[in-house]
Structure formats: structure tokens, C-alpha cells
Amino acid sequence: MPHDANTETAAVEFSLRLHEHPLRRQVASETHTLAYPALQIPGQVSHLAYANQHLSLANELWLLQRLCRHFGVAGPAGEVAAFSTQLGELQLFWQRHAEHSMLSISAPLDSASPPFAQPALAGLPAEWLDLLPGQVLVAIHALVLPAAALPQAVPELAAHFFTGHELVGGEVGDGAGWLFGDYQPDHNGFLRFVLADRRMGRRQAGRMLQRLFDIESARALAQLAPPIAQQIAPELAAADLELAELISSLQDLSAHNEWPLLQRLTRLSAQVESALSRTDHRFAASADYYTQVRERLLELRETRVQGVQPLSQFLTRRLAPKLQHCAVVAQRQRTLAQRVSRATALLRTRVEVGLEQQNQHLLSGMAERARLQLRLQETVEGLSIAAISYYLCGLLGYGLKGLKAMGVPVAVELVQGLSLPLLVAVLFAVLRRVRRKLGEQPAA
Q1: CA pair distance 38, 91, nearest whole angstrom
Q2: Mean pLDDT of the region 420-438
Q3: What is the third-level CATH fold of 225-361?
Q4: What DSSP line would sit under 206-258, residue for residue?
Q5: pLDDT at residue number 259
Q6: For the chain, what are the domain ranges?
Q7: What mean pLDDT is predicted for residues 257-275?
Q8: Closest by alpha carbon to 209, among 62, 411, 47, 3?
Q9: Which of 103-112, 149-158, 283-292 has the highest mean predicted lDDT (pLDDT)?
Q10: Contact status, residue 215 vs residue 314, Cβ threshold 8 Å
Q11: Which residues pair with 194 in a beta bridge?
């Protein structure tokens, strides 16, 4: 049968070449990098957050690739900041942030074992766990259970999962689940939490638990500032007292002690600025992390359970006073730096005024010496007129004597005597005119 082009329609894929922004693909790919994997219910999760300032991205990726080779799966490809994979029955989720990295391992829950007896980290090779970084900020074991598996009474819940410790938590996700913890580290230093699923599902349970991990990481990083504030407080107090002493010294300032006082102020200014540069970044970062804690607490959509302190209340009451103290110390540092700067500027002004007065005295002395030199110059000019007049009279006398010798009747002494005033007047006028011309040259 002959081919009829009119009866067949070829499917043509639409193609359009866009002029994209250089970062468009990267921004689009990062949209899903923070997606937490779905949790197994019942299941358990072990979470670690550690400081990475002294740990490069290449070292972390090498650790992940070594773990993936142990389980026979593909490791992270390229320099990525987030990675998740399945390691047999385990799920691995890793993220690298600016100051810390997070590693989460989720595994099925063995209902025959006591709670938290065999955490998810126990499924990883012991030799690989020994290679983990030592600067751990957060360590958590969490159980994810169906709501039916939890005791109804709070004391029974605390006794069964938390060895009778006082509980913190409540309903989360607008009643879609329960979240409880005791904030009491176990013998390995891990905090313990229980997340109960009422109607969340695996994905929402994963997101809810990830919010808890983010809260704990931000809380730990925010609490790095209060110890620094306590250490810097005595130094600020000493600097404040020294500044008060220096400012009081400005009231009875004399010329001979300006420079030593200026040197002390300069040294104090350098000391305050050095302390400010050491602590300002940490204080600002802690304030930002505290903002993240409050935002994640709101995302939990927590509802109070009778007899249990809410997680938001528990954390806010412990974080807010410390970070407010850090804010006060940071503001005190800036205020002290401004006061030192003003005192230094005031003293520099007084030093400059003193120097200007010295320069004025020097200029006055130079003007007096110039006046004396002018007087001397005028005296010398008078002597010069007398000397020149004497020589001109002598020359005129020699000329008149020559004329007299030639027979011309001339009274030499009389002519010399009469011409002397005229010569003096002419010389005085000429020198005065020359001096006036020289005086007019700079103005021209």
C-alpha cells in the first residue's frame, strides 16, 4: 500500500532553547535536597550533628563513600551537600551546613527489644563509627511508633520509655501525632524522644522528626555564645573602669601628659575592638540560630497535653535568658567601643589644638624675626645710600677737577656740595621704587 503523508501525523517533540541564568539548574536541584525520607512505622532513628569547621567536604564525602562501599551501594557523586541512600534495612540521610553537618540513620524497630536498647546506629560497622568526627553537638535516639503502642497515662509513658524522668512535649501537627522526650542524656550521651503517629503517615512523620533535629541543632549552636559572654564580661568590666578613669583625667589635662594618655586610649581601643571581632560573629550567629529554633517550634504546631510541659515552653525558658544576656553583652561591647572612640577623638582634638598653638607661637616668632630683619634691612639701605652718595660725589669731583685742569673755571667744592643733596634724593627714590616693585611681584 503506498505511503500517504496526509493520513499519518508524525509526533514531534516540542523543543525550545531558553537563555537560562547560570544558577537556575543549581537552584532547581536544591529544591529537593532537604527532603527527609519516609520513616518506617514502627521504626527508630539515630541522629548526630557535629561541628565541621575543621572537617572538609571531601573528608565527609570520603566517609560516606567508605560506608556505601561496605554495604555495596553507590556513594555520593560529586561535591554534594546532601545525600540519602538505602543501606540494606537502614536508611542514611546526610546534610552539610555552614557550621555543622547532620547524619541520620533510620532502621526497623525490633519490638522484642527494650526501648532504645538497639538503636539504629548499632546497624553500622563499628570500625566506621570510630571514624566519625569527635566534635558532636547533638546526639539523639528517636522511636517512631503507632499511637496505639503508647500508654495512655503520662506516668506509665515516662516509666516505660524514659525511666521515670519528667516528660517534655505534647501533641504535634495539630493533633496528628505525639512527641515526647525527657532531655536526660543516656549513658552514651544521647537524648531520647518518642514520636507517635495518630494520622501523620510516613512522610509527615519524617518531616516532623526532621524539624525536631533542626531544633536541637540550632539550639546547640545558639548555646555556644553564652559561655563566650561569660568569659568576656570581666574583660569588659575592666575596660569600662579604665575608660572611666581616662575620661576623668581629661578634665585636668596638662600639656605634658597628653601623649601618655593618648597611648593608653589607643591601646584600650585596640583591646575593645579585638574582643568585638572575636565575639561579634558568634553572638550574631547565636541570635540567628535562636530565630531558627522559634520558627521550627512554630512549624511543630504543638498543642499542650495535660501534665506535660510543652517543648516550646521548655526550650524558650532555657534559651531566652541566656541569649538576651548575649545580646546585652554584644550591645555593651559596641557601646564601649563607641565611647572609647569618642574619648580618643576628644583627646586627639586637644592634642591637635595644642600643636596648633605651638605652631602659632612659632609663626609669631618668625614674624618678629622678619620684622627685625626688615628694620635691619632699612638701616642697611640708609648706610648704602650714604656710601653710594659718597662714591658718586667723589666721581663727580674727579670729573670737575679734570675740567678745571683743562681751563674751565669750575668751583669743584661748591658743585660737589650742591650736588650731594640731589644725589641722596635720587638714590633714595630709586631704592624705594625698587623695593616697591619687589613687594608687588607675589601679588602679581
Answers
A1: 9
A2: 78
A3: Methane Monooxygenase Hydroxylase; Chain G, domain 1 (1.20.58)
A4: HHHHHHHHHHHHHHHHHTTHHHHHHHHHHHHHHHHHHHHHHHHHGGG--GGGH
A5: 76
A6: 37-199, 225-361, 371-436
A7: 83
A8: 47
A9: 283-292
A10: no
A11: 143, 180
